Amino acid sequence: MSVLSPRFTGKIDIASPTPVFFDAMKARVRLGLLTGRPDWRSRYVVEGHTEQELAIRASDFITAINVGLNEVVLRKAGNRTVEYSVNYWRWAAYVVGLGAVLGVAFVVGVLFWGIESRLGRHALGADSALDRTIAVALFWALVLFWAGIWPWILIAMHKPFARKLLDRIIREVDVAAQQTVAPEA
Q1: Which of 37, 47, 75, 101 suits 120 as a labelling partner, its CA being 20 to 30 A distant?
Q2: Which range of residues forms the domain containing residue 144?
Q3: Could you write out the DSSP letters of every residue in 99-137?
Q4: What is the pTM (predicted TM-score) of this model?
């Protein structure tokens, strides 16, 4: 899996039986996946549920761009092990789109206000053609970086934070699921 790909997988051990854990996770989704209580920026729905798998997705745009756990699939990997796969393509599309909009805004600003002709003078304090060329090249390099490269850096940087959040949620749900299991005799 590519570093720039907006998806990740993982595995985590749980203390509760998988069916009980899946039921507790479904209850958590109904209550509010991120915090365990309703929030307008955290609306998730259970997309599918079998004995082996539970699929969860962000139900609206605000939720999709808020955290980036757009689609989560939890699979039973063993008696007390859950594998997960997450994709955050909607979050990534938002980040890339926002970068593109900002890039276009910068370019339009330069073209509309005629800033390009003054870039060399104001940026470097001189009026030579070389200074102007350097300033224009610097401007385009900055536009390329902030509009085209930075969003992909954000996508790569998002993975460990989203993984840590999902691991925390799974641990919290596991603790809740353990409380619903009757003590073994």
Answers
A1: 101
A2: 93-151
A3: HHHHHHHHHHHHHHHTGGGGHHHHHHS---HHHHHHHHH
A4: 0.84
Per-residue tokens: 110? 């330069």
pLDDT tens digits, residue range 55-89?
999 999 999 999 889 999 999 998 899 999 999 99
Q: What 3-state DSSP class applies to 185?
A: coil
48 neighbors 80 (Cβ within 8 angstroms): no
Strand order in the sheet with 71-78: 7-13, 81-87, 71-78, 53-58, 44-49
Q: How many CB atoms lie within 10 A of CB 135?
A: 19
* Angle of CA points 177, 28, 50, to nearest 5°: 75
Give, in order, the Cα–Cα distances in Å from 36 to each of 28, 123, 142, 151, 170. Answer: 6, 51, 42, 30, 12
Burial tier of 16 (Cβ tally within 10 Å: 0-12, 13-18, 19+) = buried
Residue 1 lies in a domain: no
Q: Are residues 105 and 22 in the same domain?
A: no
Same domain, 37 and 86: yes
What are the backbone dihedrals phi and psi of residue 4, each rounded to the nearest 5 degrees, phi first? -85, -10
